[in-house]
Design a protein that fits this description.
The chain is of the alpha+beta class and 185 residues long. It has one domain: 2-Layer Sandwich (Alpha-Beta Plaits). 34% of the residues lie in helices and 22% in strands. The protein is built from three helices and eight strands. The protein has a four-stranded antiparallel β-sheet with strand order 6-7-3-8, sandwiched between helices. Strands 1-2 form a two-stranded antiparallel ribbon. A hairpin with a 2-residue loop joins strand 4 and strand 5. Helix 1 packs across helix 2. The chain starts with a strand and ends in a 16-residue tail after the last helix. About 18% of the residues have low confidence.
Length: 185
């Protein structure tokens, strides 16, 4: 994808591994808020006290497991300024998608479809999650922004899965030592 242009505008190369299609597998995902601001609540006495937006961000994760047949969130935690997920994408499961009527230009839709397929199913799911949280914030007049990208790690074996799952489960308890704790300038 290096050097590809969309509508004559430069596209930043993907942070995803170019040797993997992200349409199947297990992934450790970290999504941060803009400048790591504490939009989702605060941690007191090793317990997460969710803000209104934090409650929505947390509850929407459960909806993903219901909405998509080919994706499961196996573990997650919503922290004050970031979200960790273990996502299982199974490309052997048939997805049922609605056909949308659109007013947009057909060429644009085809271009975006090609880009979307290159990004993989994982990027589609993370984009949908980020969009839903942002939409909720806008509808409720909550100032909010995500960091533009997300971090992923392909989980390669069960031992790595266990380590990531334990990290997620203990993230609130270990908040004082968390690298994401402080906001960025």
């Amino acid at each position: 994808m290096s050097g590809d242009l969309f509508r004559n505008k430069y596209r930043i190369d993907s942070a995803r591994a170019d040797w993997h299609d992200y349409n199947h597998g297990y992934y450790f995902i970290t999504i941060c808020t803009n400048k790591r601001e504490h939009f989702f609540g605060e941690i007191h006495d090793h317990k997460m006290a969710f803000s209104t937006l934090g409650n929505f961000a947390n509850s929407y994760i459960d909806k993903i497991n219901v909405m998509y047949k080919d994706v499961q969130i196996l573990s997650h935690v919503v922290m004050p300024n970031h979200v960790h997920l273990i996502v299982d994408v199974d490309n052997t499961v048939k997805r049922y998608t609605r056909k949308r009527k659109t007013k947009n230009n057909i060429d644009t839709n085809e271009d975006m479809s090609k880009i979307s397929k290159r990004c993989g199913r994982l990027s589609n799911i993370v984009s949908k999650y980020k969009s839903s949280v942002t939409t909720f914030a806008l509808k409720n007049d909550i100032p909010f922004m995500w960091q533009s990208r997300f971090h992923d790690r392909i989980i390669r074996d069960y031992k790595e899965f266990e380590n990531v799952d334990n990290y997620i489960k203990n993230n609130v308890f270990n908040w004082n030592d968390d690298e994401y704790r402080h906001s960025l300038p």
